[in-house]
Amino acid sequence: MTARNARTVRGRLAIAAALCASAALTAACSGGDAGPGADHREAGLVQSPPKPAPAGQPFWVDPNSPAAQQVKQWQANGRASDAEVLRRIADRPLAVWPAGDEPGWQIRAARDGAAKSGSTMVLVAYNIPHRDCGQHSAGGAHSEDFYRQWIGAFADNIEDKKAIVILEPDALPHVADGCTPAEYHEQRFRLMSEAVARLKKQKNTKVYLDAGNPDWIRNPGDLAQPLWRAGIAQADGFALNVSNFQPTAENIAYGKKLSALVGNKHFVIDTSRNGNGPLPGRGGEAWCNPPGRALGAAPTTRTGEKLVDAFLWIKRPGESDGQCRGGPPAGKWWPEYALGLARNSK
């Protein structure tokens, strides 16, 4: 991972197969390659019924997220005070990252839960061929045709329910920074523009193309052409700061500049872990499980900015960025790191 990248959408999880081996977890496993937002459930923990979205909060809260399950476990094991702090994550809406070759089962679970609570699900489509330049989250669809199939199944399972889709984190910034080889650029633009068109056939689905963060592609002009080529004209806008730590104010300023270059499109910002901003310094592994970070602004559509449609928790707080600073494999739930994020939040 390059220093310019400084991203945290990390990891194909080796733990997926082990989790799926448990009969108790069969319904929670796709049998495929798990993405950074995969919702891996701890064995033996109780499932909860859906609950209505809190007032003023329109997005779906998964009552059985790893954080929610951890709260129950700590309550049962005498860690009630820690459990209460962790509710700062458990009671918030988190994006769902459907993983593996069949995205439908996770989308159906989110769809049905959101329908019962009258809320909007937030989904991340993350399966572009040649994903992450062969680095930490290498993988993705093995062919153009398979990607079309996959995104078609993704869209079909949304049905007519309300959804926000963040389309392909890293894909366009990796074109802009030169990490993705030039021979794959045209394929990427083609598949992403087709994905936008396919997803927009779902009448209540909004689509935002990932556009990195202000500390990655410093000049927003470098992203304008990739966004146009990838279908921004048909999309609802773009997403900033996915899995990163850049302050909200900096994202807003950057987003306004980028918006002016792409038809004044609106944007959303990932505020899941930017409460204390990024770890000082750009070198090394500043992006990987940095200490002292905090939860950012809670998900909401009340952003106070005309061009900012929502603050979202796209990265799922508490899921590891990788095996650094004592962390587990990328994407695996790390309760003590989650607790630190929650304790540090205002």
Question: In words, what does this structure look like?
Answer:
The protein has helices at residues 15-20, 66-76, 80-90, 104-117, 144-158, 171-176, 185-199, 221-229, 248-261, 335-344; strands at residues 121-125, 163-167, 205-210, 237-240, 266-270, 308-312. It has 346 residues and is of the alpha/beta class. It has one domain: 1, 4-beta cellobiohydrolase (TIM Barrel).
Features:
alpha/beta; TIM Barrel; 6-stranded parallel sheet; 6 strands; 32% helix; 346 residues
What is the secondary structure topology, with strand pairs?
Blueprint: H1 15-20, H2 66-76, H3 80-90, H4 104-117, E1 121-125, H5 144-158, E2 163-167, H6 171-176, H7 185-199, E3 205-210, H8 221-229, E4 237-240, H9 248-261, E5 266-270, E6 308-312, H10 335-344
Parallel strand pairs: 1-2, 2-3, 3-4, 4-5, 5-6
Helix pairs in contact: 2-3, 3-10, 4-5, 5-7
Q: Fill in the CATH topology.
A: TIM Barrel
Instruction: Supply the CATH superfamily name.
Output: 1, 4-beta cellobiohydrolase
Counting DSSP E segments of at least 2 residues, the number of strands comes to: 6
Mean pLDDT value: 85
Largest sheet entry: 6 strands, parallel
Helix content: 25-40%
CATH architecture type = Alpha-Beta Barrel
How does the overall form come out from the CA principal axes?
globular
Order of helix and strand elements from N to C terminus: HHHHEHEHHEHEHEEH
Structural class: alpha/beta
Number of helices: 10
- Under CATH at level 1, the class stands as Alpha Beta
